[in-house]
Amino acid sequence: MPADVALVSFDDPDSGDLLTPGMTALARHDRELGELGGRLILDALSGERKATEPAEVRVPLELVVRGTCGCIHRPESP
Question: In this structure, what are the phi and psi dihedrals at residue 72, rounded to the nearest 5 degrees?
Fold first, then answer.
């Protein structure tokens, strides 16, 4: 890697930057997801929305670029 295969992980594991090359990842925002989920529950309990009404929630991901995607240019060794 990354000459033959590109690798991107979902959830950006803590060890992603400890690997050689570092693992490129899509980082989730767990706190934001929890806050949105809590808000949906509270809205349903208070009657602001029906508990059976589907909700679409989109939380942006963050691309953490490291070496496994082949995007980072590294100088060739002599």
Answer: -90, 120
Mean pLDDT per 10-residue interval, the chain, length 78 residues: 76 78 86 90 89 83 86 56
pTM over 0.70: no
Strand 24-27 relative to strand 62-64, pairing: antiparallel
55 contacts 22 by C-beta, under 8 angstroms: no
> Hey, how many other C-beta atoms are within 10 angstroms of the C-beta on 12?
19
As a whole number of Å, the CA-based R_g of the chain is: 19
